[in-house]
Amino acid sequence: MTNKLLDIHKLSVTFSTDEGIVHAVNHVDLSIKAGEAIAVVGESGAGKSQVFQAVMGLLTKNAQATGEISFRSQQLLNQPDSVLNQIRGQKISMVFQDPMTSLNPYLTVGKQLVEVLQVHQKLSFKQAKVRSIDMLHAVKLRNPEQCFNQYPHELSGGMRQRIVIAMALLCRPDLLIADEPTTALDVTVQASIMALFKDFHKKNNRAVVLITHDLPLALIFCERIVVMYAGTIIESGRTEDILYRHQHPYTQALLAASPQNDLNASGRLHAIEGMPPDPLKPTSGCAFYARCQYADQKCLQVPKLITESNQHQFACFHPLAKGVTA
Amino acid sequence: MSLLDVKNIDLSYPKQQEKALNAVSFSLSQGQALGVVGESGCGKSTLVRAILQLQKYQAGDILWKGKSLKLCTVKQKQQFYRQVQLIFQDPLDALNPRFTISQILTEPLLHLSEKKLNHLEIAKKIAQVLDYVGLESKILNRYPHEFSGGQCQRIGIARAMIVEPELLICDEPVSALDVSVQAQIMNVLLDLKEHNNLSLIFVSHDLSVVRHMSDHILVMQQGSVVEQGETSQIYKHPKETYTQTLLNAIVRC
Question: What is the pTM of this model?
């Protein structure tokens, strides 16, 4: 048995809607090793969240998922809640984008934290309270005892996100999935929240998946990066490969679009023109075809993922020259 | 002459000890862009509300083209609202879900135009603003929920631009958007500023976003302006430690 923690094999997710079938995720292969920090990067609608909603068994009722997802060789996909509940929150936990909507507004922070331990680890209230307050200390909340008795609306966005993270870490999961954890937060708060994840990852050697649209953020935090576009993986590799030797034009465009870069010669930002393809109408060729400056006849076929050295993979007929920088 | 003068504004909310705005002053000339940066809760949005007279301030004065807005008549105020338009953070929230795009774009013309416009003139104006923001006319009969965040923000900008404002206030216009769409929207705003001699107030918590959009930057902390100056100056040689903190928080690769 290898040290694969989570193995996703040929995962496809479709949604049946009134307008037709939405192809959100197409044949995604992805595996995560124990203790690894990886990022899944892409625009909204790229399917990055849906992959992990499928892992957690949180897909909506109109969704259909095919393929295989195994966690430590236990099947997760399309399993009943009774099976999933022994893993969710205990072995794998998830942090969502909006900290207000993932907390129950009617319950105090303490009640919500203690509940996790009472359910998963059958602790008494007293024991659970001690552990919860310890965890609130660990996520560097200023006044944990006071926070414990407060309601979510009394706290700021950054504090709420810290509480959600504390909740996710309570059972010391092997895998933490963070879905756009800092998008709703200020840049200064973002830095401190990312530091928390780094701490958790480094100190406890636990695996972290960061789902984000912000490629620079992924680059500084993660060891491996997976770039998704229109439901498929178009490039993946170690962080330095993605940063210095990226091969897919989309990865290049995503790096260039960041406002940290300088303006181009005409005094504008390097925007990616156009929109991602409509998931209702699956394209026959490369999904990036319509927006790609290198596209030609060849790209009307679907490019396969080519593996280069060091697990660097990309799906493009016109890979960029070696040694390019953003 | 400056377009907008904000002079020593003090503002506190009821039952709160600390001032939300503390002696905030700046002025903005025609065609200029001012960036306002700071963390959430520093008073950026309160400042926008004060400028738009949506929030009463206890001391100080705000002058529009040299005239105090406190002493305005109702008619003058209406004119002020035509000349100053606002773009919001959440593009979908800011559009009426029951209105078609055509209705959304027509409404400001009906209420804020100086003279009554006929159908032809309205259609012409709508075509013009759609062109500004890079949308096609076939979207006009659709509803806001049918569009992505970036497209909704374009519609929001079109709605603001349709009354030909002189000042556009953008309150975190790109923080709810993806990086790639952010760049598109910022380019639209840069184009508008260049071609229409538009003045901008650009509010954001992200200095890297603000620096592309503005000639001057105002750094706010807890209701006070801690640093103010030319963009390049602030970006390259920040004087205050707080500005330095904001700069350090930017993720660079």
Answer: 0.84
